[in-house]
């Protein structure tokens, strides 16, 4: 799809692409070097028969990452990704060939390509080893933030367990405007929207206190947050979902997942709410990433692990300011056991099998870790699109998925969302839940961007604002 506007690029020194290149990516890379060094140190302390070989591979990975960090700082040329036997290599190398030399540098390449390329190239260093193939360099970080989200997790757990108990009452006259079910839905979906603020690739700039504030749960803080949703299609989505009631076997929702930990937890809460409390939906398919991606994105292992951790009584205790009561532990295990049940009965389904830590990438699982914008899905991944067409609503979570939906371009901010979707528009019914962490944005009313530029210059990237954009199949 030929974009009518340029893509964001670090060439523009005032954009977030430039900040990413000079500030954020070096920190992401340095953190991986520390993670690998820690493992190497442990191996030194407690050697086994493979330690020496693994340590040596670890050292090689460290030097490759350090080289990449040097390259980004020195505007080096991007080179093809070497054969490492893993998925999605040719797509990067093929596209790379199409750029003239002056664009093919860290400081001049379009941001969407360069950032995806960086994570794919990182993967290459691990994939081409014997002992680090299954290693996820971001796992520790993901697990730490999940643990520190216990307050919000407990709050949501109690809300949904209660909602399920009150199901009958909740469903009374649900078609009516402002019904109890509608209000509950709005609460659950907003928790899921703001759950996206918990993105570890951004925690380079955000601190943990901000993070807890961003995990807005509870109706008061949600009301407070409502004004930060700059385009809000939530009611349209509700009206659409209500109509699925008439489908014989109930509807199907797909989540194109974004981050692990708290955000994933809120995805599961929304999914469970739709299945257990409403008459509309009976199946939810979750699409994780097949390789470690943008620091915090969900891998198949993270998915299972997030649910299992809720059953471990000691999991949250080390990080919680208030001790977790046995009643709380019971609520958590009710929730986790219900989710396991949904997985057994097929009401929840993970689209990538969990036979290894990283899962086995099915063709459908591969597309999410390519560099392609989703406008190009009809052309580059017709099979994936056919699968998504079976869904009644495909929910794209988060900032990167949003950037891909609109091609990460400098659209005028009042461009209709449908127009920015290009050839994808009308092919599936889709919803994007995104907190704003990058410059590109569409679907705003006249004057909004100009007002915010004056009032809160970081509004495009701070994660404080959000857009909820819905588009129906035609
Ligand atoms: O723009 C900031 C950023 O960290 C980008 O790297 C990326 O687009 C994105 O946010 C990751 O956020 P999310 O996890 O919401 O996709
Ligand atoms: Mg992410």
From TrEMBL:
Its EC number is 3.1.3.-. Its cofactor is Mn(2+); Ni(2+). GO terms for molecular function: metal ion binding; phosphatase activity. One of its GO terms (biological process) is DNA damage response. Pfam families: ARMT1-like_dom (PF01937). The keyword Hydrolase applies. Keywords: Coiled coil, Hydrolase, Manganese, Metal-binding. Residues 22-451 form the Damage-control phosphatase ARMT1-like metal-binding domain. GO terms for cellular component: nucleus. It catalyses: beta-D-fructose 1-phosphate + H2O = D-fructose + phosphate; beta-D-fructose 6-phosphate = dihydroxyacetone + D-glyceraldehyde 3-phosphate. InterPro entries: ARMT-1-like_metal-bd_sf (IPR036075), ARMT1 (IPR039763), ARMT1-like_metal-bd (IPR002791). It is an enzyme of class 3 (hydrolase). Residues 153-184 form a coiled coil. Subfamily III proteins have a conserved RTxK motif about 40-50 residues from the C-terminus; the threonine may be replaced by serine or cysteine. Metal-dependent phosphatase that shows phosphatase activity against several substrates, including fructose-1-phosphate and fructose-6-phosphate. Its preference for fructose-1-phosphate, a strong glycating agent that causes DNA damage rather than a canonical yeast metabolite, suggests a damage-control function in hexose phosphate metabolism. Belongs to the damage-control phosphatase family. Sugar phosphate phosphatase III subfamily. This is Sugar phosphate phosphatase. It comes from Kwoniella pini CBS 10737.
């Amino acid at each position: 799809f030929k974009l009518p506007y340029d893509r964001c690029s670090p060439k523009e020194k005032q954009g977030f692409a430039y900040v990413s290149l000079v500030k954020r990516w070096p920190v992401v890379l340095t953190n991986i070097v520390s993670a690998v060094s820690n493992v190497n140190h442990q191996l030194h302390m407690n050697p086994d028969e493979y330690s020496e070989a693994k340590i040596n591979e670890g050292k090689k990975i460290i030097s490759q990452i350090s080289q990449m960090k040097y390259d980004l700082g020195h505007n080096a040329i991007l080179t093809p990704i070497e054969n490492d036997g893993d998925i999605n290599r040719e797509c990067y190398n093929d596209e790379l060939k199409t750029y003239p030399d002056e664009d093919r540098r860290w400081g001049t390449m379009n941001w969407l390509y360069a950032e995806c390329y960086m994570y794919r190239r990182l993967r290459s260093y691990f994939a081409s080893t014997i002992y680090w193939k299954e290693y996820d360099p971001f796992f520790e970080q993901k697990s730490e933030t999940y643990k520190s989200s216990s307050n919000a997790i407990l709050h949501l757990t109690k809300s949904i367990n209660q909602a399920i108990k009150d199901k009958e009452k909740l469903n009374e006259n649900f078609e009516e405007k402002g019904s109890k079910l509608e209000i509950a839905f709005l609460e659950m979906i907003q928790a899921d929207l703001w759950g996206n603020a918990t993105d570890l690739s951004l925690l380079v700039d955000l601190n943990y206190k901000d993070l807890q504030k961003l995990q807005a749960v509870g109706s008061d803080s949600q009301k407070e947050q409502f004004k930060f949703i700059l385009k809000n299609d939530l009611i349209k989505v509700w009206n659409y979902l209500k109509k699925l009631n008439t489908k014989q076997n109930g509807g199907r929702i797909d989540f194109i997942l974004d981050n692990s930990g708290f955000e994933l937890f809120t995805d599961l809460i929304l999914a469970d709410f739709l299945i257990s409390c409403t008459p509309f939906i009976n199946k939810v398919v979750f699409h994780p990433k097949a390789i470690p991606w943008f620091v915090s994105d969900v891998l198949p292992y993270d998915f299972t692990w997030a649910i299992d951790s809720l059953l471990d009584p000691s999991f949250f205790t080390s990080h919680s300011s208030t001790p977790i009561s046995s009643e709380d532990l019971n609520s958590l295990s009710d929730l986790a056991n219900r989710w396991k049940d949904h997985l057994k009965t097929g009401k929840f389904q993970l689209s990538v099998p969990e036979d290894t830590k990283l899962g086995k990438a099915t063709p459908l699982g591969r597309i999410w870790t390519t560099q392609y914008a989703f406008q190009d899905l009809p052309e580059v991944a017709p099979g994936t699109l056919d699968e998504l067409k079976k869904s009644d609503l495909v929910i794209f979570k988060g900032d990167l998925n949003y950037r891909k939906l609109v091609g990460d371009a400098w659209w005028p901010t009042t461009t209709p969302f449908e127009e920015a979707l290009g050839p994808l528009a009308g092919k599936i019914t889709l919803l994007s839940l995104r907190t704003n962490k990058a410059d590109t944005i569409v679907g705003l009313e006249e004057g909004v961007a100009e007002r915010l530029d004056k009032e809160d210059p970081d509004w495009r990237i701070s994660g404080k604002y959000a857009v909820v954009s819905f588009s129906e199949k035609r």
